[in-house]
Amino acid sequence: MLPLNKNSILSHLNSPVSIQVFDKIDSTNTFLKQNFTDFSSESPSLVVANSQSAGYGKFKRTFFSPNSGVYFSILLPHRLVKNPNLLTLAAGVAVCSVLKKIISSGNFSLKWVNDILIDGLKCGGILAENISDDKGNSAFIIGIGVNINVKQFPDELIGIASNISQSEKFNRNFFIAEVINLFLELLSGNQQIIPQFRLLCSTFGHRVEVVNGKQIVVGQAVDVDDSGALIVIDDKKNHHLFNSGEVSKISI
């Protein structure tokens, strides 16, 4: 596996982005949350790590982050984000599209709202967070993690998680830069996020259970609306919209 390299990432980027690269870190999202006022309030900033000791995802669940994966977080000033509701979807489209471009044989798709799948199993995830301090500073952080060449998953992830098996020549620097390039292009409005997400999402057409707090709905996942909310039609033909929630497919 080619080593992470700041200059290599910079050489593939289409726009100015400040970068810090770590061999080991607790969490790239945590680092940015703790230090976000030290970064530019005018342009994106990127933190990349070879491994994470305390990576986390939705609902603060542990995100398994062994050596050799791709773990990075991008800090975005609020002024660069026109529609915060679409941040996670845009990141998913960027990651999945670049993986398909680099690894044409891979069966990649997206599970609403923040999972990256290969052959139906989770190989990566996305976490968007909105942060602020008592001085009025604020920003968005989007964390992205992708499993590559994982030799052994913890027992609790077997049958749920998978990884991308790639040769030692897989260029993580190019992958990270291409994801950032497409992500920023999507956010700029030059490409439509929702139509591309619809093409990549494998949740639609399946019977699902959605848990959102105390609300539990079982029905058919049919689409997302223009805000990125999941549309589920229950057995009584009632339509439900979810801006967040835990989605599980139900075998028939």
Detailed description of the structure:
- This protein is an alpha+beta fold and 252 residues long.
- The protein folds into two domains: 6-200, Bira Bifunctional Protein, Domain 2 (BirA Bifunctional Protein, domain 2, 2-Layer Sandwich); 207-249, SH3 type barrels (Roll).
- Helix content is 22%, strand content 33%.
- It has helices spanning 6-12, 28-35, 87-102, 172-188, 193-200; strands at residues 18-25, 45-52, 70-77, 108-111, 115-118, 121-132, 138-146, 207-212, 215-224, 230-234, 239-242, 246-249.
- Helix 1 crosses helix 4, helix 3 packs across helix 4 and helix 3 crosses helix 5.
- The longest helix has 17 residues, at 172-188.
- The protein is globular and about 55 Å long.
- The mean pLDDT is 92.
Tally of distinct domains:
2
Largest sheet: number of strands, sense, barrel closure: 7 strands, mixed
How many DSSP H or I helices? 5
Mean pLDDT rating: 92
At the fourth level of CATH, the homologous superfamily of the largest domain is: Bira Bifunctional Protein, Domain 2
Task: Please compute the radius of gyration using only Cα atoms.
Answer: 18 Å
Distance between the termini: 41 Å
